[in-house]
Amino acid sequence: MDPSSPVEELSGKLLEVKTEIASVTRQINDIELKLGRLQYLIAGRAEWTYEEPILFDDDVKLVRQHVFLLGHEKAHLQHQKAILLEMQLRIQDERILHADRQPSTKALADVIRVPPSVQHYHRALFHPKYVRPPSSQSASSSSSRLSTQLSEFATRVRKFYDVDRSYCMVAGQIDLSDHIGEQHCVKAAHLWDYRCRKALPTFHLTEQDIDNPRNGLPLCSEIEIAFGAGRVCFLYQPATRDVVFVVLDPDIKNKTASPSGSTFGDLHGTSLKFKNANRPFKRLLAYLAANSIAFASKKKSKSKK
Protein backbone atom coordinates (compact mmCIF):
# COMPACT_ATOMS: atom_id res chain seq x y z
CA MET A 1 0.00 0.00 0.00
CA ASP A 2 2.88 2.40 0.73
CA PRO A 3 4.56 4.10 -2.21
CA SER A 4 8.30 3.89 -2.51
CA SER A 5 9.97 6.28 -0.08
CA PRO A 6 11.98 9.35 -1.19
CA VAL A 7 15.14 7.65 0.11
CA GLU A 8 14.55 4.67 -2.20
CA GLU A 9 13.92 7.02 -5.14
CA LEU A 10 17.11 8.95 -4.39
CA SER A 11 19.07 5.70 -4.06
CA GLY A 12 17.88 4.62 -7.51
CA LYS A 13 18.80 7.99 -8.98
CA LEU A 14 22.20 7.85 -7.28
CA LEU A 15 22.86 4.43 -8.82
CA GLU A 16 21.99 5.82 -12.27
CA VAL A 17 24.36 8.75 -11.74
CA LYS A 18 27.19 6.45 -10.66
CA THR A 19 26.62 4.28 -13.74
CA GLU A 20 26.74 7.32 -16.00
CA ILE A 21 29.90 8.59 -14.29
CA ALA A 22 31.55 5.21 -14.90
CA SER A 23 30.54 5.41 -18.57
CA VAL A 24 31.92 8.95 -18.88
CA THR A 25 35.16 7.89 -17.20
CA ARG A 26 35.56 5.05 -19.69
CA GLN A 27 35.02 7.49 -22.56
CA ILE A 28 37.60 9.89 -21.13
CA ASN A 29 40.14 7.10 -20.72
CA ASP A 30 39.50 6.01 -24.31
CA ILE A 31 39.97 9.57 -25.54
CA GLU A 32 43.20 9.94 -23.57
CA LEU A 33 44.51 6.76 -25.19
CA LYS A 34 43.61 8.15 -28.61
CA LEU A 35 45.26 11.47 -27.80
CA GLY A 36 48.41 9.75 -26.64
CA ARG A 37 48.55 7.66 -29.79
CA LEU A 38 48.02 10.69 -32.05
CA GLN A 39 50.63 12.76 -30.22
CA TYR A 40 53.14 9.94 -30.69
CA LEU A 41 52.26 9.79 -34.40
CA ILE A 42 52.64 13.56 -34.85
CA ALA A 43 55.94 13.63 -33.00
CA GLY A 44 57.22 10.77 -35.13
CA ARG A 45 57.77 8.55 -32.13
CA ALA A 46 55.42 5.93 -33.51
CA GLU A 47 54.75 4.41 -36.89
CA TRP A 48 51.45 4.52 -38.70
CA THR A 49 49.57 1.27 -38.84
CA TYR A 50 47.93 0.07 -42.02
CA GLU A 51 44.51 1.50 -41.01
CA GLU A 52 45.68 4.86 -39.65
CA PRO A 53 46.81 6.44 -42.94
CA ILE A 54 43.40 5.59 -44.35
CA LEU A 55 41.67 6.96 -41.25
CA PHE A 56 43.56 10.25 -41.19
CA ASP A 57 44.31 10.47 -44.92
CA ASP A 58 47.98 10.68 -44.04
CA ASP A 59 47.53 14.45 -43.61
CA VAL A 60 49.22 16.14 -40.63
CA LYS A 61 46.75 19.04 -40.67
CA LEU A 62 43.85 16.63 -40.55
CA VAL A 63 45.49 14.78 -37.67
CA ARG A 64 45.98 18.03 -35.74
CA GLN A 65 42.38 19.02 -36.37
CA HIS A 66 41.24 15.64 -35.10
CA VAL A 67 43.43 16.05 -32.01
CA PHE A 68 41.77 19.43 -31.37
CA LEU A 69 38.30 17.94 -31.72
CA LEU A 70 39.17 15.08 -29.40
CA GLY A 71 40.58 17.53 -26.87
CA HIS A 72 37.39 19.57 -27.06
CA GLU A 73 35.34 16.40 -26.58
CA LYS A 74 37.46 15.47 -23.59
CA ALA A 75 36.93 18.90 -22.01
CA HIS A 76 33.18 18.56 -22.58
CA LEU A 77 33.14 15.11 -20.98
CA GLN A 78 35.18 16.32 -18.02
CA HIS A 79 32.72 19.18 -17.54
CA GLN A 80 29.85 16.70 -17.74
CA LYS A 81 31.59 14.50 -15.21
CA ALA A 82 31.97 17.45 -12.84
CA ILE A 83 28.25 18.17 -13.15
CA LEU A 84 27.40 14.54 -12.45
CA LEU A 85 29.70 14.46 -9.43
CA GLU A 86 28.05 17.62 -8.11
CA MET A 87 24.65 16.00 -8.65
CA GLN A 88 25.85 12.90 -6.82
CA LEU A 89 26.94 14.96 -3.81
CA ARG A 90 23.67 16.89 -3.79
CA ILE A 91 21.63 13.68 -3.87
CA GLN A 92 23.71 12.26 -1.03
CA ASP A 93 23.10 15.44 0.99
CA GLU A 94 19.37 15.21 0.31
CA ARG A 95 19.38 11.57 1.33
CA ILE A 96 21.12 12.39 4.63
CA LEU A 97 18.74 15.31 5.25
CA HIS A 98 15.72 13.10 4.56
CA ALA A 99 17.05 10.42 6.89
CA ASP A 100 17.45 13.03 9.64
CA ARG A 101 13.83 14.05 9.17
CA GLN A 102 12.44 10.55 9.53
CA PRO A 103 10.06 10.44 12.51
CA SER A 104 11.13 8.60 15.63
CA THR A 105 8.15 6.31 15.08
CA LYS A 106 9.99 4.31 12.44
CA ALA A 107 10.37 1.60 15.07
CA LEU A 108 6.59 1.20 15.22
CA ALA A 109 6.28 -1.66 12.77
CA ASP A 110 2.84 -1.03 11.31
CA VAL A 111 2.73 2.77 11.25
CA ILE A 112 2.28 4.23 7.77
CA ARG A 113 4.63 6.94 6.51
CA VAL A 114 3.86 10.34 8.03
CA PRO A 115 3.31 13.03 5.37
CA PRO A 116 5.95 15.77 5.15
CA SER A 117 3.44 18.40 6.29
CA VAL A 118 3.64 16.94 9.80
CA GLN A 119 7.18 18.30 10.11
CA HIS A 120 5.86 21.87 10.05
CA TYR A 121 3.72 21.33 13.13
CA HIS A 122 6.11 18.99 14.91
CA ARG A 123 8.07 21.94 16.33
CA ALA A 124 5.14 22.96 18.52
CA LEU A 125 4.32 19.46 19.76
CA PHE A 126 5.55 19.89 23.30
CA HIS A 127 4.63 23.55 23.76
CA PRO A 128 2.17 23.64 26.70
CA LYS A 129 -0.05 26.14 24.89
CA TYR A 130 -0.82 23.71 22.10
CA VAL A 131 -0.72 20.23 23.63
CA ARG A 132 -4.17 18.77 24.18
CA PRO A 133 -5.14 18.16 27.82
CA PRO A 134 -5.02 14.46 28.78
CA SER A 135 -8.40 12.87 28.24
CA SER A 136 -7.61 9.28 29.40
CA GLN A 137 -10.71 7.29 28.48
CA SER A 138 -12.97 10.28 27.88
CA ALA A 139 -12.72 11.39 24.27
CA SER A 140 -15.80 13.60 24.39
CA SER A 141 -14.02 16.89 25.05
CA SER A 142 -17.24 18.82 24.54
CA SER A 143 -19.25 17.03 27.24
CA SER A 144 -19.78 20.25 29.19
CA ARG A 145 -21.34 22.05 26.22
CA LEU A 146 -25.05 22.35 25.57
CA SER A 147 -26.53 19.27 23.96
CA THR A 148 -28.22 21.48 21.37
CA GLN A 149 -24.81 22.79 20.23
CA LEU A 150 -23.47 19.27 19.91
CA SER A 151 -26.58 18.13 18.06
CA GLU A 152 -26.29 21.02 15.60
CA PHE A 153 -22.61 20.23 15.08
CA ALA A 154 -23.42 16.56 14.41
CA THR A 155 -26.06 17.55 11.85
CA ARG A 156 -23.60 19.84 10.04
CA VAL A 157 -20.92 17.14 10.00
CA ARG A 158 -23.25 14.49 8.56
CA LYS A 159 -24.53 16.93 5.93
CA PHE A 160 -20.96 17.99 5.04
CA TYR A 161 -19.86 14.38 4.44
CA ASP A 162 -23.25 13.32 3.00
CA VAL A 163 -23.78 10.46 5.48
CA ASP A 164 -26.53 9.35 7.86
CA ARG A 165 -26.51 8.77 11.62
CA SER A 166 -25.25 5.18 11.29
CA TYR A 167 -22.26 5.85 9.03
CA CYS A 168 -18.71 5.72 10.42
CA MET A 169 -15.91 7.12 8.27
CA VAL A 170 -13.60 4.30 9.34
CA ALA A 171 -15.90 1.26 9.47
CA GLY A 172 -18.53 2.36 6.94
CA GLN A 173 -22.26 1.73 7.30
CA ILE A 174 -23.20 0.32 10.71
CA ASP A 175 -26.29 -1.71 11.58
CA LEU A 176 -27.44 -0.07 14.81
CA SER A 177 -30.58 -2.17 15.25
CA ASP A 178 -28.92 -4.38 17.88
CA HIS A 179 -27.00 -1.57 19.62
CA ILE A 180 -28.39 0.63 22.36
CA GLY A 181 -26.66 3.29 24.48
CA GLU A 182 -23.92 5.90 24.18
CA GLN A 183 -21.21 3.23 23.98
CA HIS A 184 -22.81 1.73 20.86
CA CYS A 185 -23.42 4.58 18.45
CA VAL A 186 -21.79 6.69 15.75
CA LYS A 187 -20.76 10.14 16.97
CA ALA A 188 -19.72 13.34 15.25
CA ALA A 189 -16.29 13.58 16.86
CA HIS A 190 -14.40 16.86 17.10
CA LEU A 191 -10.86 16.52 15.71
CA TRP A 192 -9.57 19.53 17.64
CA ASP A 193 -10.44 19.55 21.34
CA TYR A 194 -13.05 22.18 22.29
CA ARG A 195 -11.05 23.11 25.38
CA CYS A 196 -8.06 24.04 23.19
CA ARG A 197 -9.98 26.20 20.72
CA LYS A 198 -7.86 29.27 21.62
CA ALA A 199 -4.90 27.59 19.89
CA LEU A 200 -6.70 27.33 16.54
CA PRO A 201 -5.24 30.64 15.20
CA THR A 202 -1.88 28.83 15.22
CA PHE A 203 -3.23 26.86 12.26
CA HIS A 204 -4.69 29.94 10.51
CA LEU A 205 -8.16 29.10 11.79
CA THR A 206 -10.47 30.95 14.16
CA GLU A 207 -11.93 29.88 17.49
CA GLN A 208 -15.31 29.65 15.74
CA ASP A 209 -13.88 26.90 13.51
CA ILE A 210 -14.14 24.56 16.48
CA ASP A 211 -17.67 23.77 15.21
CA ASN A 212 -16.76 23.86 11.53
CA PRO A 213 -17.81 20.50 10.01
CA ARG A 214 -14.23 20.16 8.68
CA ASN A 215 -13.21 19.84 12.34
CA GLY A 216 -15.35 16.75 12.66
CA LEU A 217 -15.61 13.13 11.58
CA PRO A 218 -18.45 10.63 12.09
CA LEU A 219 -16.82 7.85 14.13
CA CYS A 220 -17.86 4.74 16.02
CA SER A 221 -18.01 5.57 19.72
CA GLU A 222 -15.06 3.28 20.58
CA ILE A 223 -12.94 4.82 17.81
CA GLU A 224 -13.78 8.31 19.10
CA ILE A 225 -12.61 7.30 22.58
CA ALA A 226 -9.37 5.81 21.23
CA PHE A 227 -8.75 8.92 19.12
CA GLY A 228 -9.22 11.23 22.10
CA ALA A 229 -6.76 9.14 24.10
CA GLY A 230 -4.12 9.32 21.34
CA ARG A 231 -4.27 5.57 20.68
CA VAL A 232 -5.20 6.00 17.01
CA CYS A 233 -4.64 8.73 14.45
CA PHE A 234 -5.52 9.73 10.89
CA LEU A 235 -2.81 10.28 8.26
CA TYR A 236 -3.60 12.40 5.20
CA GLN A 237 -2.01 11.23 1.93
CA PRO A 238 -1.61 14.29 -0.38
CA ALA A 239 -1.05 12.27 -3.57
CA THR A 240 -4.39 10.44 -3.34
CA ARG A 241 -6.31 12.70 -0.89
CA ASP A 242 -6.94 9.56 1.16
CA VAL A 243 -7.03 9.69 4.95
CA VAL A 244 -5.61 6.51 6.50
CA PHE A 245 -6.67 5.14 9.89
CA VAL A 246 -3.69 4.05 11.99
CA VAL A 247 -3.74 2.16 15.30
CA LEU A 248 -0.80 3.30 17.44
CA ASP A 249 -1.54 1.24 20.55
CA PRO A 250 -1.04 -2.50 19.91
CA ASP A 251 -3.00 -3.28 23.08
CA ILE A 252 -6.30 -2.39 21.39
CA LYS A 253 -5.79 -4.18 18.07
CA ASN A 254 -7.90 -7.15 19.17
CA LYS A 255 -10.58 -4.93 20.69
CA THR A 256 -13.88 -4.51 18.82
CA ALA A 257 -14.43 -0.99 17.51
CA SER A 258 -18.06 -0.96 18.68
CA PRO A 259 -20.67 -0.58 17.34
CA SER A 260 -18.96 -2.02 14.24
CA GLY A 261 -18.21 -5.73 14.15
CA SER A 262 -14.57 -5.12 13.23
CA THR A 263 -11.59 -5.00 15.53
CA PHE A 264 -9.16 -2.08 15.59
CA GLY A 265 -6.62 -4.41 14.00
CA ASP A 266 -9.01 -5.14 11.11
CA LEU A 267 -9.43 -1.42 10.45
CA HIS A 268 -5.75 -0.48 10.87
CA GLY A 269 -4.23 0.85 7.64
CA THR A 270 -7.56 1.27 5.81
CA SER A 271 -8.56 4.51 4.09
CA LEU A 272 -11.52 6.46 5.41
CA LYS A 273 -14.66 5.86 3.38
CA PHE A 274 -15.61 9.32 2.09
CA LYS A 275 -18.75 9.65 -0.04
CA ASN A 276 -17.84 13.00 -1.58
CA ALA A 277 -14.86 15.29 -2.16
CA ASN A 278 -15.12 17.01 1.23
CA ARG A 279 -12.24 16.46 3.65
CA PRO A 280 -11.42 17.51 7.23
CA PHE A 281 -8.81 20.20 7.99
CA LYS A 282 -5.54 18.64 6.79
CA ARG A 283 -3.41 20.89 9.03
CA LEU A 284 -5.23 19.59 12.10
CA LEU A 285 -4.95 15.97 10.97
CA ALA A 286 -1.20 16.48 10.50
CA TYR A 287 -0.64 18.06 13.91
CA LEU A 288 -2.83 15.61 15.81
CA ALA A 289 -1.17 12.64 14.07
CA ALA A 290 2.29 13.95 15.01
CA ASN A 291 1.11 14.57 18.57
CA SER A 292 -0.32 11.07 18.96
CA ILE A 293 2.67 9.41 17.29
CA ALA A 294 5.12 11.26 19.55
CA PHE A 295 3.10 10.18 22.59
CA ALA A 296 2.99 6.55 21.40
CA SER A 297 6.74 6.60 20.75
CA LYS A 298 7.46 7.91 24.26
CA LYS A 299 5.15 5.32 25.77
CA LYS A 300 6.90 2.52 23.88
CA SER A 301 10.34 3.79 24.95
CA LYS A 302 9.30 3.83 28.61
CA SER A 303 7.88 0.30 28.39
CA LYS A 304 11.28 -1.01 27.22
CA LYS A 305 13.09 0.34 30.29
UniProtKB/TrEMBL annotation:
**Does Coiled coil appear among the keywords?**
yes
Note the coiled coil stretches, chain numbering. 7-34
Entry superkingdom: Eukaryota
What are the alphabetically sorted keywords of the record? Answer: Coiled coil, Mitochondrion
Q: Taking every annotated instance into account, which residue ranges of this chain make up the domain HNH nuclease?
A: 168-234
Q: By its UniProt entry, which Pfam families does this protein fall under?
A: HNH_2
What is the name of the protein in this document?
A: HNH nuclease domain-containing protein
Give the organism, scientific name: Plasmodiophora brassicae
